[in-house]
Amino acid sequence: MSWLAASVYDRFMRGSEQACLARWRAELLQDVAGEVLEIGAGTGANLPHYPKAVTRLVLAEPDRHMRRKLQAKCASVGLPNAEICDASLGALPIASESFDVTVASLVLCSVPDLDAALADIFRVLRPGGCLVFLEHVAAEGKPARLKWQRRIEPLWKRLAKNCHLTRRTEQAISNAGFGIEWIQRESMRKANPLVRASIRGHARKPLV
């Protein structure tokens, strides 16, 4: 299943990437600078959008099949010095306060423990560091869709590598100690209706 997911992921996401995700990624990452850690980098959809102000880029991806595609994407977009590791959120083998920016896109839905994952992100960021996020979330503004998300979620998690449909990620980010600087809530076009509700934005770790 892991091999199959890595093989079809880009094809499966192509419609949404063309309709909105590529533009959203570019907007989110345009001002990123310094030392950056991307969590769950997948097949590398964010790679073309990192600016030259990034001085170090570490890509954490625990799935070995995804890592192979990630390595190839680094070469194709001219990022041969990007560091790729197999670290997982919740147990990152990274010293505290090591990065200026952490990027999480379409990954917090599938971590086993969302609070532990965000605590780990908070830990590895330097004071004043930024969490850049892009995630699908519970459709709280559409009660009928939210009801279907709840019904389908147990099966969906089994089929989609622990992907949760009803996570309230915005609240979890705030609960982890981040201050949300800006956030955009928008429907992810060309996506399955169950995962269209999305949030994206920047959250800041306090200086003290």
Structural overview:
- The chain has 208 residues and is of the alpha/beta class.
- The chain has a single domain, classed as 3-Layer(aba) Sandwich (Rossmann fold).
- The chain contains five helices and seven strands.
- It has a seven-stranded mixed beta sheet with strand order 3-2-1-4-5-7-6, sandwiched between helices.
- Strand 2, helix 2 and strand 3 form a beta-alpha-beta unit.
- Helix 1 crosses helix 2.
- The protein is globular.
- The termini are far apart.
- The model has no long low-confidence stretch (mean pLDDT 95).
Task: Kindly summarize this structure in a few lines.
The protein has 208 residues and is an alpha/beta fold.
CATH uppermost class: Alpha Beta
CATH domain topology: Rossmann fold
Tell me, what's the shape?
A: globular
Helix content: 25-40%
Q: Provide the CATH superfamily.
A: Vaccinia Virus protein VP39
Tags for this model:
single chain; about 210 residues; alpha/beta; Rossmann fold; 5 helices; about 35% helix; globular
Task: Give the SSE map.
Blueprint: H1 2-29, E1 34-39, E2 54-60, H2 64-76, E3 83-85, E4 99-105, H3 114-124, E5 125-136, H4 143-159, H5 169-175, E6 179-187, E7 197-204
Parallel strand pairs: 1-2, 1-4, 2-3, 4-5
Antiparallel strand pairs: 5-7, 6-7
Helix pairs in contact: 1-2
